[in-house]
């Protein structure tokens, strides 16, 4: 059972590629952002570590992590961002490795896709045999983000400036999925890749 990593910038269409893999190719999908979110719920290890490092000031009235407050703290402080990542990344990687092992034992899927925003995260997890980059031209990404999420140009500028250059993905990934057209085109590429 092949394990692939899927990465790409915000608005690239990773979610649609993952949906197609799930629905049409019997692919088990792991979204690392969703895993991280669940591991940051009260009572979970990442939650406890974050509260220990940042204090109870980062909790909302219900005792959950106040994500916007945390984002504002780590956005401008590299050391605090690294500290936050240390509270979450190792637990996410361990969870993913365990889930891949479980699914392989059960033999329930034809393949497994692990989605992460950063290529380095996929390498750190260490279970992916291949890394696929979902590529979209910046102007198309902008239009999609404007329509689907209502992002302003300023917000998109900030997001794009904080992301790695495309050359890093082109050089570091084995496969580039061209998502500049329609889903039918993407599906054709996936059919060829999943033979």
UniProtKB/TrEMBL annotation:
Disulfide bond among keywords: no
Enzyme Commission identifier(s): 2.7.1.24
Reactions mediated catalytically: 3'-dephospho-CoA + ATP = ADP + CoA + H(+)
GO MF term set: ATP binding; dephospho-CoA kinase activity
Keywords for this protein: ATP-binding, Coenzyme A biosynthesis, Cytoplasm, Kinase, Nucleotide-binding, Transferase
Annotated positions binding ATP: 11-16
GO biological process terms, semicolon-separated: coenzyme A biosynthetic process
CDD domains: DPCK
Biochemical pathway: Cofactor biosynthesis; coenzyme A biosynthesis; CoA from (R)-pantothenate: step 5/5
Pfam family, one: CoaE
Any single GO CC term annotated in Swiss-Prot or TrEMBL for this entry: cytoplasm
Listed InterPro entries: Depp_CoAkinase (IPR001977), P-loop_NTPase (IPR027417)
Keyword Transferase recorded: yes
Subcellular location(s) of the protein: Cytoplasm
PANTHER family recorded: BIFUNCTIONAL COENZYME A SYNTHASE-RELATED (PTHR10695:SF46), DEPHOSPHO-COA KINASE-RELATED (PTHR10695)
Function statement: Catalyzes the phosphorylation of the 3'-hydroxyl group of dephosphocoenzyme A to form coenzyme A.
Similarity comment: Belongs to the CoaE family.
Protein name in the entry: Dephospho-CoA kinase
Biological source species: Frisingicoccus caecimuris
Lineage: Bacteria, Bacillati, Bacillota, Clostridia, Lachnospirales
Gene symbol of the encoding locus: coaE
């Amino acid at each position: 059972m092949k394990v692939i990593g899927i990465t790409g910038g915000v608005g690239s269409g990773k979610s649609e590629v993952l949906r197609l893999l799930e629905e049409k190719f019997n692919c088990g999908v792991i979204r690392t952002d969703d895993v991280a979110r669940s591991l940051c719920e009260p009572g979970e290890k990442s939650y406890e570590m974050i509260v220990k490092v940042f204090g109870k000031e980062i909790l909302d009235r219900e005792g959950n992590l106040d994500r916007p407050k945390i984002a504002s703290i780590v956005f401008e402080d590299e050391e605090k961002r690294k500290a936050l990542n240390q509270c979450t990344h190792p637990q996410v990687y361990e969870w993913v490795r365990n889930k891949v092992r479980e699914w392989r034992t059960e033999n329930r899927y034809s393949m497994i896709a692990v989605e992460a925003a950063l290529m380095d995260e996929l390498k750190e997890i260490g279970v992916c045999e291949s890394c696929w980059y979902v590529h979209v031209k910046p102007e198309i990404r902008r239009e999609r983000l404007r329509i689907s999420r209502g992002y302003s140009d300023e917000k998109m500028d900030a997001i794009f400036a904080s992301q790695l250059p495309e050359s890093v993905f082109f050089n570091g990934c084995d496969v580039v999925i061209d998502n500049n057209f329609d889903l039918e085109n993407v599906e054709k590429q996936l059919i060829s890749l999943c033979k």
